[in-house]
Amino acid sequence: MQKIFSLEGKNAVVVGGAGGIGQAIAQGLAEAGAKVAIASRSVDSLQRAVLEIKEACGLEVKYYTVDAAVESSVEALVVESVKDFGKVDILVNAQGFNKKFNAEDFPMDSFKQMFDVNVIGVMMCCKHFGKHMIQNGYGKMVNLSSVRGRIATKGPGNAGYCGTKGALDMMTRQLASEFGKYNITVNAIGPTITETPMMTDILNSRGPNARKDLAESLPMKRMALPTDCVGPAIFLCSDASGFVTGNIIYPDGGLTAIG
Ligand SMILES: NC(=O)C1=CN([C@@H]2O[C@H](COP(=O)(O)OP(=O)(O)OC[C@H]3O[C@@H](n4cnc5c(N)ncnc54)[C@H](O)[C@@H]3O)[C@@H](O)[C@H]2O)C=CC1
Ligand SMILES: O=C(O)C(=O)C[C@H](O)C(=O)CO
């Protein structure tokens, strides 16, 4: 691997790293040379992910439990990971979920829960890891947004999710604006629908042709995989992106080009 893409000597925490896109990114960062920890709510899923990463690439990753929607839990994650690693250079926020309801029936508690995790949870991680990175004079933050932060769905149900990802995009730009002077970059990755646990039920509910139709609708004529986010993540976590901040990269098979 070219040296500017190497993550040797860097320590990374991937929140929401026990499955789906976060787990793929955690493995990718480890393979690029970083020491990696994944953080999520369930010990079982964390231990399963640690094992899967070890089996896939032979590398060990640490794990921490965190509820990223609870500020004291995020503060504890920062304290623990800094104690274990000495410093944290890279933060990936891959936590998030989607609950779909028609707008006219949207239960407001579900709407708020999405904001608690997808926006406020990300802000709390950027805030508390940000304090630590400011002291270190170095940091790379990557937030998992979505094409849904930029283009709405044709069908109903996504008012809450689109709202959270649009807010996340703008928050990412503002954090980039504030943290730039501390040598901290803040960027986002905006995938299109990707085959992960978050999307399984949604895709199954759309019938047997859902995946084929989805693939056909994209210029690149295939469905997105969690690994499609790995290259963008390594770029945004490495010195290769030294002067890139406040940006969103779309591993979307061309959807936003035609959307
Ligand atoms: N799968 C997809 O089609 C797309 C996903 N995304 C975004 O990518 C990110 C990852 O999504 P997926 O891998 O698909 O989902 P996933 O459900 O496979 O993974 C999300 C992870 O976040 C964790 N998490 C949720 N709430 C948390 C909390 N309060 N504290 C700590 N961890 C929490 C979950 O336990 C899970 O491990 C999310 O932000 C999602 O919105 C964006 C575009 C497309
Ligand atoms: O686009 C949809 O339909 C969705 O369900 C949104 C997904 O949850 C998503 O994250 C696509 O980016």
Write the layout of secondary structure elements.
Blueprint: E1 11-15, H1 20-31, E2 35-40, H2 43-57, E3 62-65, H3 71-85, E4 90-93, H4 108-136, E5 139-144, H5 159-179, E6 184-189, H6 197-204, H7 210-217, H8 230-237, E7 248-249, H9 255-258
Parallel strand pairs: 1-2, 1-4, 2-3, 4-5, 5-6, 6-7
Bound molecules: 1,4-dihydronicotinamide adenine dinucleotide (NAI) and ligand LADIRMRS.
1,4-dihydronicotinamide adenine dinucleotide binds next to helix 1, helix 4 and helix 6.
CATH class wording: Alpha Beta
CATH topology: Rossmann fold
- How many alpha or pi helices? 9
Number of domains: 1
Q: How would a crystallographer describe the biggest sheet?
A: 7 strands, parallel
**Based on DSSP secondary structure assignment, what is the total number of beta strands?**
7
Question: What is the CATH H-level superfamily?
Answer: NAD(P)-binding Rossmann-like Domain
The string of secondary-structure elements, in order, is: EHEHEHEHEHEHHHEH
Q: Radius of gyration from the CA trace?
A: 17 Å
- Percent helix range: 40-55%
Ligand names: 1,4-dihydronicotinamide adenine dinucleotide, ligand LADIRMRS
User: Ranges with pLDDT <50 over ≥5 residues?
Assistant: none
The N- to C-terminal Cα distance equals 34 Å
Residue-averaged pLDDT: 97
EC number: 1.1.1.127
Family: Belongs to the short-chain dehydrogenases/reductases (SDR) family.
InterPro entries: NAD(P)-bd_dom_sf (IPR036291), SDR_fam (IPR002347)
Keywords: Oxidoreductase
